Amino acid sequence: MANSQLYPLEVNPRTGEPFLRLKNHKTIIITPPRQEDTALYPAIMNDPRIYEWLGSPPSPYTADHAEAWYARVKATSDGALKDLEAAQESSDLILVGDCPVRAIREMKEDGTDIFIGDIGIMRSAGGKLMAPADADDDQKAKHAEENAARKLGDPKIAWTVGYYIIPSYHGRGIMTDALQTLLWEWAVPRMGVRYIVASAFEGNEGSLGVFRKNGFVQTRIIENHIETRGQWRNLTVMEWNMPGAEARPNSDSPDQ
């Protein structure tokens, strides 16, 4: 018997793997990460069309980095699934602190699928993004600590989102659809997400366009945010408040 707590995830009847189907791209699904994905990560992360816009992955990206990333995201996915399994006798859908699916895949006619990207919505740990623009390091740390301590379901929790899709799938609207689907099908109803603060390097019009199409607004630019590959990069901060919810008081105005 299927666990009703997985709703609205579907379950692959052949493998038992849960997945979320995109609203507008029916052949694109989001699944838990798989061990086999690690063989693909280095080539993706060493592609300049990808790493140019990502600040955190190491460069060059190795098989060891891939295994470490997989272990991290697999643990998060498994933790969410474990919580859902533990609550399967409950008649009410519970809130969970993470999403069990994040690997974006294209389904083929023969029933197989291929890995094409990644998307994750998680609790923000970035005090620099949550605090006002003029906050000092202690204030930023305080914001991060307070956000980590908020109980699940608190509408004041600041969440964040990160994603990428392989270049051959750029320009098809897939990531806009993936964020919209994950946000409204899982993050809002199953994680209690009401506020998101996200970011992209200044000039990354692809990612910024995905945010804007999903109702995010630019609140500020953090100059010289990080040095990557010998270049200091400015960061565009984008924020989303659930329609009808009270806006976060720490949000800066767009002209700051």
Textual characterization of the structure:
This is Acetyltransferase (GNAT) domain containing protein. One of its GO terms (molecular function) is acyltransferase activity, transferring groups other than amino-acyl groups. The protein is built from seven helices and nine strands, in the order βββαααββααβαβαββ. The chain is α+β, with helices and mostly antiparallel strands and 256 residues long. It is 30% helix and 25% strand. Residues 251-256 have low confidence and may be disordered. The chain is globular, with a radius of gyration of 18 Å. It has a six-stranded antiparallel beta sheet, covered by helices on one side. Strands 7-9-8 form a three-stranded antiparallel beta sheet, covered by helices on one side. It has a single domain (4-241), classed as Aminopeptidase (3-Layer(aba) Sandwich), CATH 3.40.630.30. It has helices at 41-45, 48-51, 63-86, 127-130, 137-149, 174-191, 205-213, and strands at residues 10-11, 18-21, 28-31, 103-107, 113-123, 159-165, 195-201, 217-228, 231-241. The chain starts with 9 loop residues before the first strand and ends in a 15-residue tail after the last strand.
